[in-house]
Amino acid sequence: MENKQKALHEQVAEKVIEGLRAGTAPWQQPWDSSNIPLILPYNTLTGKRYRGINSISLLMAGRDDPRWMTFLQAEDSGYKIRKGERASLIQFVKTTDEKLQRDSQGKVQMDELGQPIKVQYVLPKAIVRNAWVFNADQIDGIPRLELPTKGQSEWTPIEKAEKLIASSGAIINHSYSRRAFYDMAKDQITLPYKNTFSESSRYYATVLHEIGHWTGHENRLNRDMGSSFGDLGYAREELRAEIASMIMGQEIGIGHDPGQHIAYVESWIKILEDDPFEIFSASMEAEKICNYILDLENKKELSVGIENINSLRLPNARIPDYLSTGDEISYNESVFKVLGHLKQGRLKMEEVTTGNMFTLSKEDKLYSALLYVKREMTASQKEENKMATNELPFTGLNR
After folding, report:
1. Which terminus has fewer CB within 10 Å in the chain: N or C?
2. Are residues 126 and 225 in the same domain?
3. 225: how many CB neighbours lie within 10 A of its CB?
């Protein structure tokens, strides 16, 4: 009962401290792409990976199967939770909700099948909700887990890593030193030569770990990275980067090698003992790091289907033709907020659902997409007082 009354971050911090002392924290476990891969926890029905502190919490639950679902999801799928099994707590941020579509007389509109039409709208403020999930090991009737095999993806892991490194534009120098590090003052990464690594996946995992630090520069995610080796700020940065490395290892299948970060374990324990909320902060920052790195490549894919967007025009001549400070626009399963204006017409943006900060110019494809959604929303509000976020006449835009 006492454990249930504690906040999720306190429960997870206690588990992580225990795991760090035993050498069993998730990011302390080495794995490589040649063996059975690490699969981070995900929802069985949606296929989406749990993020932030939820991912760490479920990894610490001691289950071998990465699949999780709620009681209702299991019931709706025809599965049965075994008697006596206990659920695991997770939290999620709700940014949208649904309402019934009504006509001008207030009558609920029906679709061609006679079902009420629902429209989605953005909540004024994000709401944190609790949920409880069960692991596949606790459920009867669920199919056996099918592990991915090599050759199923379009790109090999090394090719994925090469593309991400090239997309970053980070300056990488090689030396005969055994150290790998990021120098913020020079904004450069230094690595040992490739032939000093036992296998290529370890080399690329190390590169992306250092690129994780590289994202903290003031011109990127602008994090406090500590002043020098040994201080707590430095250790916090290593904790973020280590969790990010674990996540990135699965995302692109290059593995994870925690060997060179053993020296930080005692500092990590002290940080979490002093402030359990640090595990929430570290896991969220790790997600931001991964999102930033992966988005470097995703931005190149925005051109798919976007070429027609500038030709789309709504009949209302008074609709907005620019994005404004304070705009919150729901687009492509995320919410983007305009934080302010920068020099040369650029905007400071936040992806609310991930917390990722970035700069957006009017020449970017995403700007055109968000402006189009804003126009649709404005026109819809004037005519029928409803959102039109999910009615874009095109697909293939990623962000």
Report:
1. N
2. no
3. 17
Q: Looking at the structure, do residues 179 and 289 belong to the same domain, yes or no?
A: yes
Tell me, yes or no, whether 185 and 274 share the same domain: yes
Positive or negative CA dihedral for 63, 66, 72, 74?
Answer: negative
- Host domain of residue 342: 303-391
> Is residue 294 located within the same domain as residue 308?
no
Strands of the sheet with 347-351, listed across from one edge: 328-331, 334-341, 347-351, 356-360
Model pTM score? 0.68
Let me know the angle formed at the C-alpha of 170 by 342 and 192, rounded to the nearest 5 degrees. 155
**201 within a domain of the structure (yes/no):** yes
Confidence class of residue 361 from pLDDT cuts 50, 70 and 90?
Answer: confident
206 and 295 in one domain? yes
Q: Can you tell me the distance from the alpha carbon of 100 to that of 356, in angstroms, rounded to the nearest whole number?
A: 32
More confident residue, 216 or 153: 216
Mutual orientation of helices 8-22 and 278-298 as an angle, nearest 10°? 90
Domain match, 135 and 177 both:
no
pLDDT digits (tens, 9 = 90+) for 41-64: 999 999 999 999 999 999 999 898
Residues 294 and 181 in one domain: yes
149: Cβ contacts below 8 Å, ≥ 6 apart = none
